[in-house]
């Protein structure tokens, strides 16, 4: 780091009875009070360099021995005032990135300008600041961070803006051309220190070659306001790849955002006995984190793939728990939708923000993400309204263009066929997880299930698992609700293993079990190769359900891993007889299943279904044998 020494006299300040004085043969004639501290000093060295003290002394009455000056709002406090006072006495002082902001503000307050005396403190600080501080990487960051304590003064003196411009220019420059000193945060074990007296001094030693994102960890130490402005300046340069911007945001979020629990609610750690002060403190912390999150969202690059889908969903979880604005949540949902095929089931398990939802996971935000995923490729309005974030502060031209760029990215990134297949698999796995939620409504489960296009589900085994888990977790569903739930299941797309499980699943409606059994037997007959050609009535029945009688269905497989309690068990399926027994038991329970539904001929549908099931022999394959036998000609029979 750079430093500058001014003055040559030794330090002769001392303290007596809480009063700071300077050793001198001349009696003091000036008392200056700075924020509760008192200084016994001399008018001549101070007034010769401080225009403000000249004015205050001329306006205040003189006492018999000392004239008293009050400086209650002095910037930088007693430390900065003492540095200025020592400069007036010619005592050696040392300036560096750590104290240059407070000293510069104090000198401005005292009006230590060139009009009062040539080579005054303000001039020397400005030379050091421009020639040394702004040329060093670490010095610039330390100085920028220290402006937070003197925000108004730093803005008026343009210290903040100059530091931001210097940092941004270094990020946009090749690291080999930047004076790094040692990087600010973590890479060095000790600092390089070099003199810059009189505004000169050599460059600090350049260190080993750094990666393209060498600046990200250092900037992560900045507070969110300064970080936001610095990142806007960097993005406005247009030279940094969007993936590096995304990496920098990820580092910053990991540094400042609170840890997000994997599941469950955010509990009040102080319990019900929390005091009002603790409650206000927690609320203030949440507000700070909320502002931080929304600022990160506003900085996200518009390009797809600039940040990972996993990181975006972590931001969604944080937004949920911090009660971020709805506009920020929607912005994140749109960005997640662009890369939803990269997500995992655990990524989608977003903790609910409160107990009001009744479930551990927020299903509504996932439904919004799926909706946005299916809207990809559709043209947005000609003049879309500007997105309204939870805060509208300091939007640069680059930030204002983000909404338009994101819409263009969305229009040109319609979800591919392969991504829809992946998302279908993802959704079925997600359904298996949330199906265990006792308070998950049937309508939401069905809406999520039906959000996937039919062609995207190659098989329905995972969907069947989810339905089976939901039925087990919700035993109070009535018959109508179970039928409604199972309408989303396509029995033709179930594998043999799934069919065997469904055929004896007592939780399924009777009609579903009959349909599963029928297609299983039809598939088994076709795969056996014993029949050259199916009868016309069987062909018509299969064709009505979308099955090509000339082609046996391909084997269907599943890859989703589920809990042991929800694994299918087919050990009880020793013979087809057990399936018929299960059907007959279910028929006795469902005797009045469809009494309110009457066929055109006046007979109840349940009666026809009952007669069909009761007519099933102990070996179901005989049904098809009889049908085939009846359709053969006498010559074929012989």
TrEMBL record:
InterPro entries assigned to the protein according to its UniProt record, in alphabetical order: BTB/POZ_dom (IPR000210), NPH3/RPT2-like (IPR043454), NPH3_dom (IPR027356), SKP1/BTB/POZ_sf (IPR011333)
Entry keyword Nucleotidyltransferase: no
GO biological process: protein ubiquitination
Lineage: Eukaryota, Viridiplantae, Streptophyta, Embryophyta, Tracheophyta
Location of the BTB domain: 28-97
Domain NPH3, residue spans: 213-523
Name the UniProt record assigns to this protein: NPH3 domain-containing protein
Keywords linked to the UniProt accession: Ubl conjugation pathway
Top-rank taxon: Eukaryota
Organism annotation: Cannabis sativa (Hemp)
Family listed: Belongs to the NPH3 family.
PROSITE patterns for the chain: BTB, NPH3
The protein's annotated pathway: Protein modification; protein ubiquitination
UniProt region (Disordered), positions on chain: 186-209
Entry-linked PANTHER family: OS12G0117600 PROTEIN (PTHR32370)
């Amino acid at each position: 780091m750079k430093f500058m020494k001014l003055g040559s006299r030794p330090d002769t300040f001392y303290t007596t009875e809480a009063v700071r004085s300077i050793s001198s043969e001349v009696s003091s004639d000036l008392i200056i009070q700075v924020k509760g501290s008192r200084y016994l000093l001399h008018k001549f060295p101070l007034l010769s360099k401080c225009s403000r003290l000249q004015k205050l002394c001329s306006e205040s009455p003189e006492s018999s021995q000392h004239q008293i000056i009050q400086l209650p709002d002095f910037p930088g406090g007693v430390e900065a005032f003492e540095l200025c006072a020592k400069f007036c006495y010619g005592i050696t002082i040392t300036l560096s990135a750590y104290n240059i902001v407070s000293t510069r503000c104090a000198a401005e307050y005292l009006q230590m300008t060139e009009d009062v005396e040539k080579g005054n403190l303000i001039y020397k600080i400005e030379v050091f600041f421009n020639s040394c501080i702004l040329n060093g990487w670490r010095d610039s960051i330390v100085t920028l961070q220290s402006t937070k304590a003197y925000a108004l003064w730093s803005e008026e003196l343009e210290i903040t803006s100059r530091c931001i411009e210097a940092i941004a220019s270094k990020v946009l420059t090749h690291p080999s051309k930047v004076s790094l000193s040692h990087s600010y945060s973590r890479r060095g074990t000790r600092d390089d220190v070099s003199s810059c007296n009189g505004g000169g001094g050599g460059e600090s030693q350049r260190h080993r070659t750094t990666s393209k994102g060498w600046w990200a960890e250092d900037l992560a130490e900045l507070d969110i306001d300064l970080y936001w402005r610095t990142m806007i300046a960097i993005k406005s340069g247009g030279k940094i790849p969007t993936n590096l911007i995304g990496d920098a945001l990820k580092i910053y979020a990991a540094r400042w955002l609170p840890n997000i629990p994997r599941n469950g609610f955010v509990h009040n750690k102080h319990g019900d006995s929390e005091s009002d002060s603790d409650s206000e403190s927690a609320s203030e912390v949440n507000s700070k984190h909320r502002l931080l999150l929304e600022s990160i969202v506003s900085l996200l690059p518009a390009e797809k793939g600039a940040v990972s889908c996993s990181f975006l969903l972590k931001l969604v979880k944080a937004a949920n728990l911090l009660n971020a604005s709805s506009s920020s949540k929607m912005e994140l949902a749109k960005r997640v939708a662009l890369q939803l095929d990269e997500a995992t089931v655990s990524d989608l398990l977003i903790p609910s923000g409160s107990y009001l939802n009744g479930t551990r996971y927020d299903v509504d935000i996932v439904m919004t993400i799926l909706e946005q995923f299916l809207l990809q490729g559709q043209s947005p309005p000609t003049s879309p309204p500007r997105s309204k974030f939870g805060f509208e502060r300091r939007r640069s031209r680059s930030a204002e263009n983000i909404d338009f760029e994101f819409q263009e990215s969305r229009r040109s990134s319609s979800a591919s066929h392969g991504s829809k297949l992946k998302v279908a698999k993802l959704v079925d796995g997600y359904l298996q997880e949330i199906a265990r939620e006792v308070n998950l409504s049937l309508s939401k489960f069905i809406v999520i299930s039906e959000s996937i296009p039919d062609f995207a589900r190659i098989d329905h085994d995972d969907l069947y698992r989810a339905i089976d888990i939901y039925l087990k977790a919700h035993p109070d569903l009535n018959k109508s609700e179970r039928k409604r739930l199972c309408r989303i299941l396509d029995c033709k797309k179930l594998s043999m293993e799934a069919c065997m499980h469904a055929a004896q699943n007592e939780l399924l409606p009777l009609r579903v079990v009959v349909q599963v059994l029928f297609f299983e037997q039809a598939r088994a007959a076709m795969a056996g190769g014993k029949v050259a050609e199916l009868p016309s009535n069987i062909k018509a029945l299969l064709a009505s359900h979308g099955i090509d009688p000339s082609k046996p269905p391909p084997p269907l497989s599943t890859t989703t891993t589920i809990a042991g309690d929800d694994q299918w068990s087919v050990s009880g399926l020793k013979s087809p007889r057990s399936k018929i027994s299960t059907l007959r038991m279910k028929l006795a329970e469902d005797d009045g299943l469809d009494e309110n539904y009457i066929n055109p001929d006046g007979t109840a549908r349940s009666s026809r279904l009952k007669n069909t099931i009761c007519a099933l022999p102990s070996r179901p394959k005989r049904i098809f044998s009889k049908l085939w036998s009846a359709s053969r000609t006498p010559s074929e029979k012989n």
